[in-house]
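#dry-run=false #mode=assembly
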Amino acid sequence: MTGTDMTGTDAAGAETADAPSSTSSKPEYRSPWSPDRTELATILDGEPRYRVDQLWEGLYSQDRPPEEQSNLPKQLKARLASQFRPALESAAEQQSDGGDTMKWLWRLPDGVEIETVLMHYANRSTVCISSQAGCAMGCGFCATGQAGYTRNLSVGEMIEQVVLARRAATPRRLSNVVFMGMGEPMANYDRVIETLHRLIVDVGIGARHLTVSTVGLVPQMLRFAEENLQVGLALSLHAANDELRSELIPINRANPIDDLVAACQLFRERTGRRVSLEWAMIDGVNDRPQDADELATVATNARAHVNLIPLNPTPGWPTVGSSPDRIRDFVSNLRRRGVNATVRANRGTDIAAACGQLAGRSDTKDQATNGPTATTVALKKSGTSRDKIT
Ligand code: SF4
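#status=ok
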């Protein structure tokens, strides 16, 4: 990021990948996790060379901001503090599943709020991070989508979510990162790609332990396939015919299922990895035998894996997820047709762990009477947990 000033704009005033793109006031400081090592060395010009190693070690091995690094001299801390401040201030924290699921609502320096969820499993710990404050995709089922778009997150703001989650996970090892929180990662494409590279190289998380989700922005999916990254791609499908999918996910009108299938095929060809098709199981909406048939056709053509997401009932919401019997029949149907399908564990439903739910709680009124339709309410919960169990 050499050449980037504190407002995150370059000399021409254009936004850089590290800068949050804001339509309102810009943060005054950058996250300490914004600069890469080359920029940090430039910033520390004039200091003994070992200071760069010390600071880097503190940021990425101890997951501590400069002000918490006891081996840095006061004068250097003050110098760094004039440019860098942690971006994430805790506005709310909740735990569930006996402490195995933790959710943060963070307030950023310009006042916008985002969410991060940490989930511990027997063999791994996964953090689900936000890529945007709000979202412009307008999916009717999603609390974030209903709240609208505010701005893209910067690289530093995304990395900071991972670093703070890793710190909170200790002594467990944070093993996986999924871009499935607030926002559409593919709509913040350049920053997300840079963040992926930084997570691999600087934070030390293997590419195969990173997953980016999308509701299906085809041009970006095609670019992503050509990035030469071994990062996973998850497509939130939820409906396998264009009529229903366009009702649930408006951008499907411009990115129809045939084009999504072609993008999934390209991803498979270029990376050798299958796309994961995410499918929230909604009673009577997309869990019928004909839905399984349609999904099986799409999954086979896309050469994709299917990840089924059971929905827990939520008091006050009119729609329930599919019954366990219905889910069993559905997955059997898919497997009979040769589709590789798994069922995901739901996590954190009692703390509103789906994207946008915690932020929405502070200002959402009576959603049961004023909120979305039955279909959209059920799907809203589809972000509850992002890892599969079978
Ligand atoms: S489901 Fe994802 S893409 Fe759709 S509005 Fe919500 S955050 Fe945006």
